[in-house]
Amino acid sequence: MDNTLAHRVRSEAKSVRRLAGSLENYLRRNLAFRRHPSELKPLFRFYASAFMSIRKYGLLSILDIDKKDELYARNLLKELYTVKRILQLLYDKMHAAVQAETLNTPYPILLYLNKLCSSIPAMKAQNVTVGFLTAQPMMYYHYPMEKVIALSDLLRLTIDGFPAFPTSLALVGYPYTESTNPLLNCALIHELGHFAWAKLPISAQVGKTISSLSVAGIPFGNLLLQRHISSSGQAACADEVFQVIVIGGLRAWTPTRLPTRVRN
Q1: Is the pTM of this model over 0.90?
Q2: How far apart are CA 73 and CA 12, in angstroms?
Q3: What does the H/E/C string look like for 3-45?
Q4: Are residues 45 and 166 in the same domain?
Q5: Which of 58-67, 100-109, 132-141: highest mean pLDDT?
Q6: Coil vs helix vs strand at 139
Q7: Of 60, 90, 75, the residue nearest 152 (C-alpha)
Q8: Are residues 15 and 52 in the same domain?
Q9: Residue 220 and residue 242 in one domain
Q10: Which single residue of 122, 167, 244, 247 has CA 20 to 30 Å from 154?
């Protein structure tokens, strides 16, 4: 095998190992000096285990390369490039979780959302829990983790000991500047509805209703909703209709002021 190729593999493996180690240390430091809601513990355990397994994978790549042929080395080099890009994606999500420490989290709402999940049989059966992440300013959104889950499943086939992503964890982003907003609960419940839409057998039921109304020529009273149907399609519209129903059903739970800080 070409010595240059072996050198490139070792260099890239050292880079991946070093990057995974840096991210592991970043996570460990923040968990030591910040207080986070317990609901995020499964996510932090996933990251810690993922970084540790990638470090070991990098070390094994360095040790084994001299025993392999050129084809194996070229495939391993591509693999290492991919793992490095995946580490960047993992960091982006982890950073948002690390910043969502308890003192910046509307904790009473978090407790309520988890209580709400436990009262819904289909979500309770899947042990769904809710965790908060920090979001970009003035935005609320559900963090779809399907890409991370798919990449995790892929890495489990390649890297020994790589963990499975906690798929029962619903991650909802919020801007910490809005943590005292009394309407925050409505926005967060709306975003939680997107997780329920993806996890539970709801889409087929609501989608059929949207389709039947459209086929029957029954006009929607909301002009904005009509435009949404024409531009986004019935599936996306059904998703949003479901979120509106969720907010309507839970709108009564809107206290005038929420305690948003938890004392140590």
Answers
A1: no
A2: 11
A3: HHHHHHHHHHHHHHHHHHHHHHHHHHHHHHHCCCCHHHHHHHH
A4: no
A5: 58-67
A6: coil
A7: 90
A8: yes
A9: yes
A10: 122
- Residues in the chain, how many? 264
Number of structural domains in the chain? 2
Q: Please report how the helices 41-64 and 3-33 are oriented relative to each other, as an axis angle in degrees rounded to 10.
A: 160
Cβ–Cβ contacts within 10 Å for residue 11, how many? Answer: 13
Domain boundary among 67, 98, 129: 98
Work out the mean pLDDT of the chain and round it to a whole number: 75
Do 9 and 127 sit in the same domain of this protein?
Answer: no
Query: What is the share, in percent, of the chain residues with pLDDT greater than 90?
Result: 16
- Specify whether the CB–CB gap between 162 and 48 falls below 8 A: no
Task: Tell which residue, 193, 196, 189, has the closest CA to residue 253.
Answer: 189
Nearest in space to 64 (alpha carbons), one of 122, 6, 111:
6
Q: Same domain for 171 and 227?
A: yes
CA 210, 213, 217, 219 dihedral sign is: negative
Q: Quick one: 158 and 212 in the same domain?
A: yes
Tell me what percent of the residues of the chain surpass a pLDDT of 70: 69
- pLDDT per residue as tens digits for the range 70-128: 888 888 888 899 898 889 888 887 888 888 776 667 777 788 888 888 887 777 888 88
Give helix then strand counts, H and E, for the chain.
Answer: 10, 3
Boundaries of domain holding 7? 1-98
